[in-house]
Every structure is written in C-alpha cells, then in structure tokens.
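FW: tagging you since you asked about this chain on Friday. Here's the raw sequence from the shared folder, copied in full. Didn't touch anything.
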Amino acid sequence: MSEKLSRFSGTGDYIVSEELQNSVNVAIALGRPLLVKGEPGTGKTMLAKSAAENLGLKFIIWNIKSTTKAQEGLYVYDTVQRLYDSQFGDRDVSDIKQYIRLGKLGEAFTSDEQVVLLIDEIDKADLEFPNDLLWELDIMSYFIPETGETITAKNRPLVIITSNAEKELPDAFLRRCIFHYIDFPDKAMMASIIKVHHPDLEERLMLQAMEAFYSLRNVSGLLKKPSTSELLDWVQALELGGINPDRLTHELPFLGVLLKKNQDLDRVPRNQQERGGRSKSFPYSQRG
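HL: got it, structure written out here
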C-alpha cells in the first residue's frame, strides 16, 4: 500500500496540495471513486487530466448534463437503427450486439489498459443518477439483458467524480467514495499557480494583481466570484496591455475578464473601475 500511496504527485502545470495528493492516492490504493467538490475554477476537472498524465493512463471523460441518465454510461441500444435496417437495410438484424454501443463506463471497463475515468459535474443530473451507478461502480461489472452479456472491468479504473454542490448526493453513494474538498488557493498557492502558467510575469505586477483579485473576491454579494482561471486570464491581459502595477492599487483594468455578470460589475465602486487611459496595445471594452 505504501508503494501505491506514492504514485500521484501532480504535474508541471497542475500543482496539488499534499492533502489532495493523498486523497488521490488513497482512492487508488482502496479502489474507491474519488469525489471532489469545490467552487468552480478550483481545478476539479483538471485534477483528473493531471492524474492521467502523471500516471501514464488513458483519460476518458463522461460529461454529465441535466438530461443524462446512468444507463447511457453503461450502454445504449440503438433500436431506431435496428428498425431502420429491418425495413430498408440488408443486415442481419437478429444480431442485436451490433446495435449495442458501450458508454463511457463501458469503455473504461473494457479497456485493455487501466484508465482514469472522469465523471464530470455529477450534481447536474437528477437525484437518482448517483444511486443508479452504485452497484456498477462497486462491483465493476454490469449486465446487458438484450445480449445476455456481462461487462466486467479488465482493469479497475481510477474514477474521479466532480461536483459543484448544486445538489446533495445520496448518503449511500457518499459512503462508497473517498471525499476531498478543494479549498480556494491561498495567496502562496496562487502565486505558484501563476508562475507555472506565466513564468515571465513581472513579480510586482503579479503581487498587485493578486492583491486586487482577492479584494475583489471579498466584495459582498457577488453572484459569481472570479476564479483561478479568470485570474490567469486577467494577469495575461494586464501584461499584454502594458498595465503599470501601481494602477491596480486604485483601478481594475479589463474588469470584464474577472466579472461576468452585470450585477457584479455594478457592485464594484466606480472609482475602482478603469477610467480612461486605455492601453493602445490592448483595446478594452469594460462590459464587452
């Protein structure tokens, strides 16, 4: 077990805390899904991609929508195509197996190599969705009644499940998962993240941008707080625009990179929003 627990350590462009690293490795060692929560922009989805890259595994993504059903992750029986072929085609429609298409979970189970399976934003689906996957994720197997075939995992995948906490997940589902909440990066961690993505960024510009960014996140009543990815875009915009770091002590140029809702823009005092003096090298429309 100690050997397995030292496997995942992040990648060059994805920095992980020791606690998150341990959670991934415990999930690997115990063969349990890892459920990751955190506010948008904290790197939940990128965690799975990073794990696949770091471990040298194939990466499969199952993007969940409000209309997604658990059955789709197992297999889909194309009855429409079979009906069409029976009326107009020359195929032997008695072979139902040719009309069975495996879903993302089926792909992960039948892969000859171990994979990382990301079930992204599970809380977007209806309340029954997690319960409908309990058994399959537990025993790593499922039955296709149309063909009488049982699909069993050749190699247990590393399953990473993300949630934005839009809905509460069932207790029975939670009991089968390793859980980790990704806290929003503190300033030290954020500085490390910025340096990974923008290694040549001027130190003073980075520090002033971070100070303004965290102050902005503390503005009361924001409908959507700016995230890490938006800060990365913002510092790049500041650099391309040739913005003097001193301006950030009293102005927030390119505010539309950070805030995406009119109501949030209106909460920022006008004296902190950009006043004239737009950069010639980087034209900017505040709300555009």
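FW: The domain at 4-181 is CATH 3.40.50.300 (Rossmann fold).
HL: agreed, and Strands lie at 34-37, 58-63, 75-77, 100-102, 115-120, 141-144, 149-152, 158-163, 178-181.
FW: great, closing this out.
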